[in-house]
Amino acid sequence: MPISREFKVGLFVACTAAIIAVSLAALAMGKGLFETVHTFTLSSKSGDGFTEGMPVVFSGFNIGVVHGLELSDEGLVLIRIRIPHRHVKWIRSGSSFVLYRPLIGAARIVVNTDNLSSPALSENVIPEVTVVNDINDAIARIEPMLDRLTKIADNVERLTRTLADPRGDLHKTLGHAEKITSNLAGKKSVLEMAVSDEESIHAVHEALRKLDDIMARLDGLLAKTDAQLYNPEGALPQVNAILKDVLQKLQKLDKTIDNINRISADTSEGMKDFRILRSDIDDAVAAIDNLVQKLDGVVGSKKMPELKTP
Amino acid sequence: MHGLESTGKVIISVVDNLHDTLIFSGKVVRRLLHPAAYNRATRNVLVNQIYFTSVQILPVFLALSVVFASLLVGIVFQSLKTLGLAEYFGHVLMGLIVTELSPLLTVLLITLRSSSAINAEIAVMKSNRELTALEMFRIDLVDYLVVPRIINGMLSMVLLSSLFSIVLMASGLLLSALIFDMSVDVYTNILLNSTSFSAIFIALVKCAVYGFFVTLIPIRFGLRATRELTSIPITVSRGMVNVFAAILIIEVLSLLTRLF
Q1: Were both Cys, which of A248, B102, B150, B154 would link to B208 (CB 3.0–4.6 Å)?
Q2: Which residues does chain B have within 8 Å of residue A17's beta carbon, measured at their own beta carbons?
């Protein structure tokens, strides 16, 4: 069945109107238009920074708005905030209220509640709002920098004034430099400019001349020493010859020592044989001694000692 | 002297034009409020007008809305993130994109699609003496031709702009999750906090005013056509220029309304 143009138009209008109506209703419900609203009153010594419609924030979420501002008989600013019923649980008797004025962005009242189990805040109680001001903080931080900049500017100014002063340090330094350059232009040498005394210059020249003589003599002495040491008949070749002779003799001595060592070893071996012979003789003497003792025993116990020899 | 004279002529022409438009607007508004204007013929024309202006282009309009909305929201969100102003995206989305750019883009689309068509249609009817024929049959031209088109313009603007805004917010939900890693609850909460009924009311009224003038001005310029066919493109061209001027004036006036 073909759909009529009227039906299509009706469907479009009805559906779109329904979508818009549902969106608006959701928005109204979301904004708590049909919800019970609780009003709390806060106080502040100054009304600076407070505006109607300012958001009330808990943990970064908007939970209400500033509904009205008025001045009390005591001169305090009374701030009336409206909190929807679903958000009133965040406002407790231990809650603190802070007016936060960021450097960028809108100011807001921040609710801090450490203990959510504490009793609900009574609408008759008027807590005080403390103020945190990023702008003032920024100014407070910038002030020392500005002081430093002012000092730097003063120093620069003083420096330029000193530079421009004809009796200032720079001009004195330049005057001294001019004197030095003029002195350099008038004198024959740097030494003359340094000591500025003719006698001293002569003394320095004399000392230098003597130093030259000393150096010449020293050169001659060294040449003679070289000749005595390094000539073919000098001291060093003779020492070399002596050392070679000593070396040859030492080699011969080495052989003799080797022979002595060998003889000593042989003697040591012979001494071992002597020890064995000695022990054999000791054994023989001990045997004879035993035999004699036995004979003594035999002979001594008989009235007529008679010995029968084998 | 000649320059001053030319300037004076232009100013007088603009003021006369504005005066005529306002007089014609008053006449149309009076007829809009008159129950007798809503006869059967008017209702039939209104249904046809809504069909051609809104229903017929709805698929294209929705597709364009998705593309425009994604681009706009994506660019704005990315810029806010880069600048470290992510916390203000709710205000930017509602205050700038939904209540300002959404009606503006919708009215531009409707102007390009329908206003030029209405202007040409009325101009052709005038050239072909169809309007004279209708008058001979004692048919009220304002009731039959103007009222249904004006109502269609206002209704279509409000409905299509609202649809555009809804598409925008849906795109915002998707892109906020992608760019800011934001949950639906947080997004909804930010939107609720950033939205005010007064701003929505102003946006809807602005849409209706847009719709009124982007159909009224083409009709008025279409009625200026002569019997010569060559007058048709001239009236269409002038009518469209005036429509764009009217859009700019309404935009400025709406901004001034927000300031005060």
Answers
A1: B154
A2: 159
B132-154 pLDDT tens trace = 999 999 888 888 999 999 999 99
| pLDDT of A270 | 83
What chain B residue is nearest to A21 in terms of C-alpha separation?
B162
The verdict on B48 touching A (C-beta cutoff 8 Å) is yes
- Are the beta carbons of A16 and B193 separated by less than 8 Å? no
B110 touches chain A (CB under 8 A): no
Residue B212 near residue B220 (C-beta atoms within 8 A)? no
Which region holds residue A75: left if phi is over 0, alpha if psi is between -120 and 50, else beta? Answer: left
Lowest mean pLDDT among A137-141, B8-12, B53-57, B204-208: A137-141
Q: Is B102 in the A-facing interface, judged by CB distances under 8 Å?
A: no
- The answer, yes or no, to whether residue B160 has pLDDT greater than 80, is yes
- Tell me if B189 and A62 make a contact (CB, 8 A cut-off): yes
Partner-chain contact A27 B48, CB within 8 Å: no
**A window 5-44, beta carbon within 8 A of B:** 5-6, 8-9, 12-13, 16-17, 19-20, 23-24, 27-28, 30-31
The pLDDT averaged over each successive group of 10 residues in chain A (310 residues) is 86 92 88 83 88 88 88 89 88 89 81 87 86 72 86 89 79 83 69 71 87 92 86 83 91 90 88 87 91 80 60
A72 exposure class (CB count in 10 Å sphere: 0-12, 13-18, 19+): exposed
Closest-CA residue of B relative to A31 is: B192
Distance to chain A for B232, nearest Cα, Å: 29
Residues 6+ apart with CB under 8 A from B94: B191, B194, B195, B199
The structural domains of chain A, with segments of one domain joined by +, span: 1-34, 35-136, 139-173
pTM of the model: 0.58
Tell me the three-class secondary structure of A4-59, residue by residue.
CHHHHHHHHHHHHHHHHHHHHHHHHHHCCCCCCEEEEEEEECCCCCCCCCCEEEEC
